[in-house]
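Q: What structure does this chain adopt?
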Amino acid sequence: MKRRPFLQTLCGAGLASAFASAQTASEKARAKKLGWALVGLGSLSTHQIAPALLKTRNAKLTGLVSGSPDKTEKWSKQYSIDAAHIYSYERFDEIIKDPAIDVVYIVLPNSMHKEYVIRAAKAGKHVFCEKPMANDAEECREMIAACKEAGKLLGIGYRCQFVPHHVEAVRLAKEKVFGQVKHIQANFGFQSGDPKQWRLRKALAGGGAMMDVGVYALQSCRMLMGEEPTEVSAIETKTDPVKFAEVDETVNWQMKFPSGRMAQCCTTYLFNGYNDFTAVCERGTFSLGPAYSYSGLKGTCSGGKNYLDMPDVDHFQLEMEAFSQAILDGKEFHPSGEEGLRDMLVVDAIYRSIQSGKLEKVAPV
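A:
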């Protein structure tokens, strides 16, 4: 064979082989299921996260972390988790030696998020953390730094960012289907039950309704406006100062954005019925209500076409699949720790405004 045809054949074969190898690697990555460990086996893990993991195409439950031997025994049987992959909080750092665990999902009271995110990152694991990310913005910065130093992804459990209803609502705003969004009203709250629950203890929750469900309304406004709030004013009211002695019961707040547009929000632990947002635009409105429930979301739009009429999906399945795929593909993930930080910067300003009784600026990222 002459030299040039030979080289062309050789190069062509080499490129074809490389392409085939790349394809195979990509297919293997898509087929692989990452091992997830749940840290905290409370109600959310029991009723939402673990069942969702059974449905994911690229993730599986391979580890448990809990302070309750009774819980881990029950979970071990239900999900076929070997004792070698079950840890107490005291033994948590030993997870570094466990190759069956790729991702650690922090499902603990808010005040424990920072500690376990940092410990998980130091153990060489990717970390997924429930919202709110932490008790304040400074803790968020420490968590972000720890994961970056470890070279691991940090994702925050903002499930609504993966739900088709919310994705479509953001599209309606971004593409100005009804003209520019001029104002947003967003609310989320519920009647809090057991007065002894951890959510009413500031040392564990960091705050009350604002931290728990207020962040959903806050984030809807940020996503739909397409810009970050610069100033907030807020007021807190309490009808039961005994039950809510340590945390906020009801918070009303306003946010001003760089464009001059405003959002009005409310969150509460006092009553049910607040679970919605409405975007008022130049040529109509669109809204979701319920907007933040695990299922049953309903949307309405001005005019004849309801863009937000969509079927239910498993919110937790979608977000865990997205995080797993980002790891497998070696890509960045959104919502990242920076997204959690942006929310907490606004929450910090809201609490400052409650204390000062004045308009407060939102600190920069």
